[in-house]
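PROTEIN SPECIFICATION:
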Amino acid sequence: MRQTLREETQAALALAAAVIGAGFASGSEILRFFSAYGALSWAGCVLAACVLAALATAAALLAGRLGAGDLGSLCACSLGASAGAVAAVVEGLMLVMTAGAMLSAMGELAALALPVHHAYALGLLATLAAAGWLARRGLSAMAALGLWLLPACLVLYGLLLYRRPEARAFLPGEPLPVHIWHTLPLAVAYAAMNVALAGGVLCELGQGRSRGSVARVCCLCALVLLVLLLAANAVLLPQASALSGAALPMVLLARPLGAVGYWACIAALSLAVMSTLIALLRTLARMLMPVLPGRWVWPAALCLPLLTALVGFVRLVEHMYPVMGALSALLFAWILLRSACCKAGRGKTRL
């Protein structure tokens, strides 16, 4: 029982590590989906965690039942060859864009941290090389990063919440809009996007696990993310309107803390970005395996996000993340509804 609990905890940490970068890497994501909508952002955080737990559990169980080892095969098995191919292409584009956003975020962090010429490009390339190497080591590398990542993020948010009073006021801002028809759909989109980005990890987790084990792993992951969401929202909400459009809001808020707080912020965000980038590269490589010769799979998985990173982090988060979230929600609804209909049809045939 103890070993099982340990394995489930490691799996939950690996799953959390797969989505934390895309959801928390800079603070821009929390601003875009939650903090920008005032008091209702708290309800959005709770809803996002609940939807993520439900969707992740359903996706992992479906992947285990169908024997799908990656998102492409999950789409094909659920939707049929033609529709599955279209869905897999859309999902692949989302993975590439998000991996590009993670690379761009690391370039921004390197430009802030390294006092050298071309720090952005050096940070981007070094991150890509390290993430590619770690991605080939499997879920154990992600679980190890997740083990360090959770306390690092909590320490960072604690520093920002209890910083000196004179550092609390960043900039004056306009009153925030509070519209439930904006907040709650965005919370669902946020959860669906993160489940889609972690789809490859979920397919791996669904193989050979019982229904109860899968549910416990996904619920524990959702609980971890809820704690981080609430903490990040508490940090960002008071200055949400003033920080809108900033590439790295957390770094801006950490500057008044001095060198210790600033470097703690850089370290936590770097871990978050790296963990998600590893998961994205693993998923992308597995999706490319059926369509490319073996020797070209990893070069393609590394080069495609590098091209997307040229778009820039802010543009990807502000404009593409909500679109990707909506597409993810529709894709999972389609897959799960089609699977339920097929299962019901088989039940009627047996009767």
Q: What stands out?
A: The CA atoms of residues 79 and 335 lie 6 Å apart.
